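can u do me a favor
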């Protein structure tokens, strides 16, 4: 059967016409989906006999709120979203001055193996469909009661490891008849799958790109990010610079600060020299410790010293605000904790 949330508008039109319906029914269906409708039976503008035909060919994928956690220190909400097969994924709502942003997942688990990330501890379970990626946005937006301004595809999973479903999602969420979210309001993060960065560039749309760099020394990066054995630091940064030059969109380099691992001033100078003069910015991320390793967050003085070095190279540098710290804000932590507790 077809998942309606995974279909582009033209595909819904084809489905409607194939069922003997009028073409305008596709717009009604798309509007229902954008408003958060979870059942074809609730699409009351459609004639009942047509709804019955539609149910024989299509369904709406499940992305229900399994649990919701609201931070007591800021306005962050973290959702555990339950899928049709019972798998759980994490989605995070963050409130900024320019409006609500949602951080969404693209996979159940992850196979990239980054040593500091809880999402990858149990490996990859499966990819999400375009409809399941979209469903997170729809579910959170419905719970919030207002339109989301920005999407960050930076939750569990490597988006480019689920590339075809990612691209289908980007097309669907941008549809004029549906969510109408502008590409400039979407950021896609990758740990550095160079060929996919080039494929996204060739698509020639103004999507914001974020690259999880986290280390500039090749040998050291290989130890904490296995993907570096396939694509070197130089290849990844070169792909980022090319993407920025082609799209005219500033590329963000995510850099996790881990005490005595990635936070030395020597590393800061290397990074500054590497990015100086390029259309880029660095987002420093003081690490969220997880149970599976002994990594520690540097103190504020080391963080500020690292930032100062980069600023001296005229590289725009921010330090990520810690949001939702009291609700297991790091990717994968909450899901794993809840699953473990319920298994016990």
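np, heres the sequence
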């Amino acid at each position: 059967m077809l998942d309606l949330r995974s279909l582009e508008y033209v595909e819904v039109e084809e489905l409607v016409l194939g069922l003997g319906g009028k073409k305008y029914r596709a717009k009604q269906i798309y509007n229902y989906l954008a408003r958060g409708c979870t059942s074809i039976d609730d699409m009351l503008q459609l004639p009942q006999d047509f709804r019955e035909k539609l149910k024989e060919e299509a369904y709406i994928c499940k992305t229900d709120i399994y649990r919701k956690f609201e931070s007591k220190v800021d306005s962050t909400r973290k959702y555990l979203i339950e899928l049709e097969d019972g798998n759980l994924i994490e989605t995070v709502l963050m409130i900024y001055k320019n409006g609500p942003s949602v951080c969404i997942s693209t996979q159940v688990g992850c196979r990239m193996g980054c040593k500091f990330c809880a999402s990858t501890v149990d490996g990859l379970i499966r990819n999400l469909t375009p409809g399941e990626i979209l469903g997170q946005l729809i579910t959170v937006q419905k719970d919030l009661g207002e339109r989301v301004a920005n999407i960050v595809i930076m939750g569990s999973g490597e988006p480019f490891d689920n590339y075809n479903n990612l691209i289908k999602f980007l097309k669907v969420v941008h549809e004029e008849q549906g969510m109408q979210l502008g590409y400039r309001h979407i950021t896609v993060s990758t740990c550095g799958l160079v060929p996919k960065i080039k494929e996204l560039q060739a698509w020639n749309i103004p999507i914001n790109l974020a690259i999880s760099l986290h280390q500039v020394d090749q040998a050291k990066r290989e130890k904490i990010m296995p993907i570096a054995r396939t694509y070197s630091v130089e290849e990844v940064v070169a792909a980022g610079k090319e993407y920025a030059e082609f799209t005219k969109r500033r590329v963000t380099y995510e850099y996790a600060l881990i005490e005595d691992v990635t936070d030395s001033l020597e590393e800061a100078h290397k990074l500054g020299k590497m990015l100086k003069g390029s259309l880029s910015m660095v987002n420093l991320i003081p690490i969220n410790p997880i149970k599976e390793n002994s990594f520690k967050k540097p103190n504020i003085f080391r963080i500020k010293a690292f930032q100062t070095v980069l600023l001296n190279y005229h590289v725009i540098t921010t330090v990520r605000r810690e949001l939702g710290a009291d609700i297991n804000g790091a990717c994968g932590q909450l899901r794993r904790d809840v699953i473990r507790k319920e298994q016990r």
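The first strand starts at residue 2 and ends at 3. hope that helps!!
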